[in-house]
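User: quick one - fold this with zinc ion bound?
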Amino acid sequence: MSKLAQVGDFCPNKNCPDYGKLQGHQLPNIIKFGTTKKGRQRSKCKSCQQTFTETKGTLFYRRRTSETEIIDTLAHIAEGNRLSSLVRTGGHKEDTIGDWLRAAGQHAEAVEEVLLNDYELSRGQIDGLWAYVGNKGEKKLS
Ligand SMILES: [Zn+2]
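Assistant: Sure. Structure tokens for the protein plus zinc ion:
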């Protein structure tokens, strides 16, 4: 399974104006900032001056459920499963799934890549997912 978003792709500091924004060539505010003693890449956000390592800052950073399970759920929604049945079978609250959907919308490009490549969903199914989210997030036309 591909990595969704890694440190250096966005700032994991919630108080930062650039928190959660995927970095592109237009917005290079995350810079490499040496390595830790254990050899992990360290990055620094130029907007908030915070430094952080690769253990932070995955797409679904600090959510209690594993990234794989979250993406599985998103894939089910894209495939047309009803939220109510996912709530029944997955044991997660509807609010929780809604939160994942919003997070996914913020990283639409990374989520799409995984759903297209690893889950082999169709473009139409993914568009259906975004319609469900009601927000195209940072998806860019490319
Ligand atoms: Zn920042």
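One thing worth noting: Strands lie at 30-35, 41-45, 51-53.
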